[in-house]
Amino acid sequence: MLEDLTNRMSEGGGVKAETDEEKACFQLETDLDHIGGKVEGSITSKKYICNEIWSSISFKGAPSWYITLSPADIKHPICIYFADNNETFKPDLQDSNECFRLVTKNPVVGALFFHLMVTLFIKHVLGVDEKHSGLYGETSAYYGTVEQQGCLTLHLHMLLWIKGCLTPQEIHEKIMDTNSDFQKKIS
Fold it and tell me: In angstroms, rounded to a whole number, what is the distance separating the alpha carbons of residues 152 and 131?
């Protein structure tokens, strides 16, 4: 039955469950989809992420910035400190091969360093939960997802909303208005 449904679906068009066996197959698919939402990196979890992003855009409008943050873990003294067995922080400059070996030997170190860098970025650069505005302005909201790069290091993709920022439509209108100061300033 499952193979028959798969073949009918691959031909295109909608397939409607008519028999009890077909309904059971669709229910199985729904159950697997529900469980897959809890598995990081699954198609369903990616679908949930997309839904969250679209909901944020619907609520907040278009994001002001798209940021990719990729800390260089094997070159940073803090990450090398995490990877080494020393108990006191004294940043000894080691050759690049030794730094690479220390960090790649322990992937938890890379994750700890990445978490520290992202936390510091959100707190100090974006100004979230701080008394100061962020580097880009007052942060209204942010949404970030983490990916693993080919060399097994982590990086962050983030959407950032800035309070009071012009919308794309407002920017378009100001650019198209030949008498606007906005157009003159960007020329």
Answer: 36
Per this entry, what is the length of the chain? Answer: 187
Residue 171, token pair as written in the block:
């920017």
* DSSP code, position 12: S
Distance CA 118, CA 126 (A): 10
Distances (CA, A) of 110 to 69, 75, 103: 14, 11, 7
Main-chain phi, psi angles of 95, to 5 degrees? -70, 160
Q: What is the pLDDT of residue 159?
A: 95
Q: In what side-by-side order are the strands of the sheet with 139-148?
A: 65-69, 154-162, 139-148
The pTM of the whole model exceeds 0.90: no
- Evaluate whether 1 touches 22 at the Cβ level (below 8 Å): yes
Domain ranges of the chain: 63-166
The predicted pLDDT at position 78 comes to 65
Q: Where are the alpha helices (DSSP H) in the chain?
A: 2-10, 20-36, 43-60, 77-83, 96-105, 107-120, 168-176, 181-186
